[in-house]
Amino acid sequence: MKEKRNLHLKVQELCDCFATTDPLKEMSELKNDPDTREAALKWLALAALHGINAGAKKISIRMSEAGEVEVTAKYREAKLPSPETTTGGDILKVIREITHIDADKGSLPLALGIRDSRVDLDITIKKEEGGESATIRFPE
Questions:
Q1: Could you write out the three-class secondary structure of 105-134?
Q2: CB–CB of 74/57 below 8 Å?
Q3: How far apart are CA 85 and CA 67, in angstroms?
Q4: What is the pLDDT of residues 63-108, one digit of tens each?
Q5: pTM for the complete prediction?
Q6: Distances in whole angstroms, Cα of residue 50 to Cα of each of 4, 81, 93, 117
Q7: φ and ψ at residue 65, rounded to 5 degrees
Q8: Which of 72, 59, 40 is nearest to 138 (CA)?
Q9: Residue 76: its pLDDT value, please?
Q10: Is there a contact between 82 and 71 (Cβ–Cβ < 8 Å)?
């Protein structure tokens, strides 16, 4: 019987695993991971850690209809290492699965346990003409 893991728990475990690493360095190495689903989970954990460590207001990932993936952070406009196309699409799917946002647009809070603390993130997903985006907003 195949084990079906809880993706939210897996992201929390990865946050714990990567808590003492450089999230941007780790993100830039994900393009070499052949398991794009696992890379998507790692990217989400690393984005959360980077956002917390760097004092980000929000991190957005956008995939155009042509399959181009772009990631930006709002604290000072900066582009983060973007995942390759397949992983970028999987990141958006994983976010939808964790949040259960099935509509074209939606927003939900996501409590993420990291070590002995917790951070409440706000996840927004928008699918519109030209592509789909997910934004992770961090607390002040």
A1: EEEEEEEEEECCEEEEEEEEEEEECCEEEE
A2: yes
A3: 6
A4: 999 999 999 988 755 677 888 889 988 999 999 999 999 999 999 9
A5: 0.66
A6: 28, 12, 21, 15
A7: -60, -25
A8: 59
A9: 53
A10: yes
